[in-house]
Amino acid sequence: MTMADTVTGTDITDLVLVEHDEFRSRFASLWVMRGEGDVAARAVAWRVLANLLEVHATAEEEILYPVLLKRGSGQAPAETVDAIRDHNQIRDAIKLAARVASGTDFWWAAVQACRTANDEHLAEEERDVIPDFRLHTDVALRRKLGARWQEFHAVHGAARGISDDDVDPAEFVRDNS
Ligand SMILES: [Fe+2]
Ligand SMILES: [Fe+2]
Hints:
Layout: H1 12-33, H2 39-71, H3 76-99, H4 105-135, H5 139-156, H6 169-176
Helix pairs in contact: 1-2, 1-4, 1-5, 2-3, 2-4, 2-5, 3-4, 3-6
The structure holds fe (ii) ion (FE2) (2 copies).
One fe (ii) ion (FE2) binds near residues 83 and 125.
């Protein structure tokens, strides 16, 4: 169960923000575990977080950004390209971490790269994307999309059926505008 499951309102932007806080909290916990000896627990904590990040990025690409492109401001295409690039950076860091032994310096470097990319990305979404989205949609639509968001998570929890392939930002904007 993720924190998103406990939200009573279904406005998609609230659900997105709750997950952003969950990522920050899970990264902070992972760093606390850095000095501890439980390698297996740390590897599991990372796998859970990585899965959540992958589901979140894909859910945004399926449900949030296509609506932003159709209804958002003139900045929406640029915001979307930027976001997809960030999602790819996060995916790439997760894939890199999967290729090296957990807990090694290489592994921490990949996890750190993921955290840095994610921190910057969350800040941009919160500063630019979410306000743009809220300004150009009404609550009824956001609740409808929130229901889709929760359904997506029910189906793809633990990254079931989620591709970790990079997405072409320009192609994405073209296909969804
Ligand atoms: Fe997000
Ligand atoms: Fe995102």
